[in-house]
Amino acid sequence: MNLTQSFCSPHTRIRIITLNPLPTILSSLPNFLLLLSKPIPFGTLRTPPRSHRLLLRHCLKHPTNTLKPILQSSNKDTIGTGDAGGGGDGGGDDGGGDEGEKENKEKGDGLQLPEWLNFSAEDATTVVAAIVISVAFRTFVAEPRYIPSLSMYPTFDVGDRLVAEKVSYYFRKPCPNDIVIFKSPPVLQEVGYTDDDVFIKRIVAKEGDTVEVRDGKLIVNGVVRNEDYILESPSYNLTPVKVPENSVFVMGDNRNNSYDSHVWGPLPAKNIIGRSLFRYWPPNRIAGTVSPKGCAVDVPAETEPV
User: Fold this and answer.
1) Which of 36, 92, 151, 272 fits as disulfide partner to 50, beta carbons 3.0 to 4.6 Å?
2) Catalytic pick from 151, 184, 261, 276?
């Protein structure tokens, strides 16, 4: 049996893989076999004797040297400066190598959390404050919305995204030409809609106004409204309707493809969530959505005296 085979014997826990043959070590084989006279079975958990460990370290560091200097060495620790565990066979089992292995094991057993999961009290306060501010902003100031249908085409297309502001109606009432988002009115909730169903339309008349559609024209208070933003003239007629108090009359810019007040009647102003301020998506259509004309004012023309 050569040296490599004795190292790899199934009766010992010492295992060495040598990349090059060591013929010079064979001369020390009898002395080395003395070290292995009491083999350590694989089934045990004991740490190999210090003499075994010193021999292994030396073979790994100096594969071309003989084993004789190792066997003749004194109890002093002479195999490398990295072993901080003191000398001698008696106290070597508690050496620095074992301590290092113990430290590595303890580190491996501990759960190492990512740095971003290490929260302090200050971090938690910052996160909570950010959430509160975000919710408050969305509830009382503005919120984003997207367009799911063509009822407001060509002003809005399917997939457009807009910001609806809520501040202006704290100081004034909704007025004609405002594009508003609103919760479904009671008449629609009676047929299955809920408060979660949100619509977007244009206000065409306010409380106290009289609205009618005749010959493809929107007429408010007897005045034909000039509407250059609609897709096409309405193909239906609407008998005169007076808008009740605290309500508005809303219609889609795509008049012939819009489920609006001409079908289900005036909208209670309390159902309005906010006013469309600007479109931010898609990028090539970023623009404000507030009418430059402001609130529409319809004054009946004075009749000439006969």
Assistant:
1) 92
2) 151
